[in-house]
Design goal:
Layout (H helix, E strand, L loop, with lengths): L2 H4 L7 E8 L2 E7 L8 E7 L3 E5 L5 E10 L5 H8 L7 H10 L1 E9 L2 E6 L1 E6 L1
Antiparallel strand pairs: 1-2, 1-5, 2-3, 3-8, 4-7, 5-6, 6-7
Length: 124
């Protein structure tokens, strides 16, 4: 099972912590609406860019996915790299050789985008 399939267990989970240090980002999740919730951690490694908006108490995950940089919408690209929507296509193409995008969308609370080189997913 690939990591994208493994992360599907996060639907309706709570994102309860984000730690950003050095070039890593750790995201902590807890199952929601179950009697004995399991906890999970995603570690993004070699992070080049990170944007997390609307972090709240009780962030409910709608969806998480990973895709190449060249598939990123222009407005999110501009927010991640603090640039114009019409950024250098050659730069984006070069980035996409080594870098992917992690996207977390919430039904309530935090939406998060990060560009990274490696990822791990584990149950705690």
């Amino acid at each position: 099972m690939n990591i994208t399939d493994q992360m599907q267990v996060l639907h309706d989970s709570l994102l309860y912590a984000i730690y950003s240090f050095d070039n890593k980002v750790e995201l902590y999740f807890c199952e929601n609406f179950v009697p004995e919730p399991r906890k999970y951690k995603i570690t993004l490694i070699e992070v080049t860019h990170l944007v997390a908006n609307n972090f709240r108490r009780g962030n409910i995950v709608l969806d998480v996915d990973i895709f190449p940089v060249d598939k990123l919408e222009d407005d999110i690209w501009a927010e991640l790299v603090c640039g114009s929507k019409n950024s250098d296509v050659t730069f984006r193409k070069k980035l996409s050789e080594d870098i992917n995008v992690f996207r977390l969308l919430s039904s309530y609370g935090c939406d998060l985008f990060a560009m990274f080189a490696k990822i791990t997913f584990e149950e705690l």
